[in-house]
Known about the structure:
- By secondary structure, the chain is of the alpha/beta class.
- Helix content is 44%, strand content 15%.
- It has helices spanning 19-30, 42-49, 66-80, 103-131, 152-172, 190-198, 202-209, 222-229, and strands at 10-14, 34-39, 57-60, 85-88, 134-139, 177-184, 240-243.
- It has a 7-stranded parallel beta sheet with strand order 3-2-1-4-5-6-7, with helices on both faces.
- Strand 5 (134-139), helix 5 (152-172) and strand 6 (177-184) form a beta-alpha-beta unit.
- Residues 14-15, 17-21, 39-41, 44, 61-64, 89-92, 112-113, 139, 141, 184, 186-187, 189-192 line the site of NADPH dihydro-nicotinamide-adenine-dinucleotide phosphate (NDP).
Amino acid sequence: MDLFDLKGKAALVTGGNGGIGLGMAQGLARAGAKVAIAGRDAQKNAAALKQLGAGAIAIVADVTNERACRGMVDEAARKLGRLDILVNNAGINIRKRPEEYQLDEWHRVLESNLTSAFVASQAAYPHLQRAGSGKIVNIGSMMSLFGASFVAPYGASKGGIVQLTRALACAWAKDRIQVNAVLPGWIDTALTRRAREEVAGLHERVLARTPAARWGAPEDLAGIAVFLCSAASDFVTGTAIPVDGGYAVQG
Length: 251
Ligand code: NDP
C-alpha cells in the first residue's frame, strides 16, 4: 500500500487558484486526488485549472459569505462525487499599524482567514463522516507564532487558526478525521509581492533570517499537503507544522 496515494479521494482547496493553494492543489492532484479549487475570481480559476490536469473543477465562491461558503463545500462534494479532504487556504492581509485599522478591516481579515475555515470545516464534516474518514488542513503563518507591528488582525486570525485546528482535531478524531495546520514561512506569491512593496527592507530581512537563504515557492507546500491528506498522517492530528526553510528556529 502506498501511504501517500490519494487515488479515489476528493479534495477541496479554498484559494486554490493561485499561490500556496495552487501549489498544494497540484501536489494533491499529482498524488491522484480529484481536486476542486475555489476562489472569487472566475478568470483566475480558469487559468489555474489548466495547471491541474483533467478532472479538476473550479468553483466561484466568496468564503466570507456563509451561504456561499457552505454551498461551495456541498458543490465540491456533489461534483466530485464525495469529499475526503478540505484545505482551508483562502486568506488576505491588510497591513497597517494597529491604531490605523477601521473595524471593518479587522472583520474582513478575520472573516477571510479564520471564520471561513470554521464555516467550511463545519460544512465539510457530514461529507467526511459519510466518507468514513477525512483530512482538514488549515493554513496558518509565521504570524501564528510571532508578532509584527503591521499584522494585528492577520496575526490574530492566524493564531486563531492554530487553536481552531486543535479544537477540531480533538472533536473529530473519533470520526477518523485528522485536522492539522501548516505554517508557511515567507513564500513568493501575489500576497507577499505586495508585502515586499509595502514593507521596506522585508525582502532582505527574510533572506537574512531564513537558514535556507531563499524565499519559498508555492511548490514547496505540495509535499506537506500530500502528507497531511494521505494515510501517511493518520495518527497525526492537531499539529501546526512550519514549512519555512528553518525561519522559525533561527535564533
Ligand atoms: P494569494 O494572494 O496568492 O492567494 C490567496 C488566495 O485566496 C487566492 O487564490 C484568492 O483567490 C483566495 N481568496 C482570498 N479571499 C477569498 C475569499 N473571500 N473567498 C474565496 N477565496 C479567497 O496568497 P498566498 O498564496 O500567499 O496565501 C494563501 C494562504 O497562505 C493565506 O491564508 C495566507 O495567509 C497564507 N500564508 C501565506 C504566506 C506567504 O508567504 N505567501 C505565509 C504564511 C501564510 P480569489 O482572489 O480568486 O478570491
